[in-house]
Amino acid sequence: MQRSALILAGGKGTRLREQEKALLVCKDKTLLENAIYVLDQVVDEVIVSVRDHKQQEAFSEFVQGIKLLCDQYQSKGPLAGMLEGMRAAAGNYVFVVACDMPFLQPDVIDLLFKEAAGHDAAIPLWKDGRKEPLHAVYNREQLIPIIERSILKDDHRVMNVVSQLYDARFTSVDRIQLIDRELVSFVNINTPADLVQITKKGVYDHG
């Protein structure tokens, strides 16, 4: 099974004072570079989604040799990037991840690909019912038409798209914790304070 990965980097970072999340530096690497480094260990291709040509130009020096796609639909949130990435992916199964998750774990991503095989998706599920749709593997053939319909209906909610998948598998976070003991896979950056705290973490070390 050919594997693809899509990094969603088109967010505006409003809670980070309009800084580009993907280009924030932590331990001498941008978050984007770190994500690509980890994903290269478990997938056959990495795709990066950005919102417009200005952002595409800003990111180009960090993603050489990687597909860097602009959203066709503007102001549609992550779904716009997911649609372009799914359309461009060579693999039928695509790991989708937000660019602000600095502690991605190759073994967790590998598990999700294995869980998704033969199904519409593999999505981490917390005990309280919360899901992690932006750290999940999707069957692109099943997902593309659902996203297209949702965008045409002006419904930009990722979870509404996920709810329409007929055969999605939900992988318990308890199971993921056997691989990622501290569940650092799901740590993300939303504010400047988050970045300061994450910078101090010793677990950010992928070589």
From TrEMBL:
It catalyses: Mo-molybdopterin + GTP + H(+) = Mo-molybdopterin guanine dinucleotide + diphosphate. It is found in: Cytoplasm. The keyword Nucleotide-binding applies. It is an enzyme of class 2 (transferase). It comes from the Archaea. Residues 5-164 form the MobA-like NTP transferase domain. Its cofactor is Mg(2+). One of its GO terms (biological process) is Mo-molybdopterin cofactor biosynthetic process. GO terms for cellular component: cytoplasm. GO terms for molecular function: GTP binding; metal ion binding; molybdenum cofactor guanylyltransferase activity. The N-terminal domain determines nucleotide recognition and specific binding, while the C-terminal domain determines the specific binding to the target protein. Transfers a GMP moiety from GTP to Mo-molybdopterin (Mo-MPT) cofactor (Moco or molybdenum cofactor) to form Mo-molybdopterin guanine dinucleotide (Mo-MGD) cofactor. This is Probable molybdenum cofactor guanylyltransferase. It comes from Methanomethylovorans hollandica (strain DSM 15978 / NBRC 107637 / DMS1).
